[in-house]
Amino acid sequence: xxxxxxxxxxxxxxVGHPALFGSTILALSGVISIVNRVxxxxxxxxxxxxxxxxxGAFLAALGLAVLFFHQTPExxxxxxxxxxxxxxxxxxxxxxxxxxxxxxxxxxxxGTILGFIxxxxxxxxxxxxxxxxxxxxxxxxxxxVVAYEFCALILSALLFIAAGRAVRTYRGVSxx
Length: 176
Prior knowledge:
The chain has six helices and no strands. By secondary structure, the protein is mainly α. The two termini are 24 Å apart. The model has no long low-confidence stretch (mean pLDDT 92).
């Protein structure tokens, strides 16, 4: 997902938008993500972590689908739609990983486990931003990376469902 933060402005400039417009859309997506972190946390307490994460992944994937098909600067509305879908989806997903991890790994080793999870996020963020640039350099397009991110979001939702089932099976947690 860090690919978006790193390459989004260049992607929009490549389509023909001014850099300031791309920056504005990226900032809007960030603001929506912040708001939806709070909303997603409350939603998670009501309907469960897995449903909230999967719903967020679905929204973010829809946002990436909109971005994938954005090929002309005349259609600015779809970038606003991207900001709402992607930002809202990522915001809803963000807190759920830590929450589900706390359901799965209770006890004195939770801090260490969460540290390893966070290291994984850091490595993925750095690698995603770098690989996105490499793929662009090799193909001349960001569409391959956007399609990959779409697939990665769907895969993460499926893996989150599996993790949630494991928690329910082994821990008896009701709001997963």
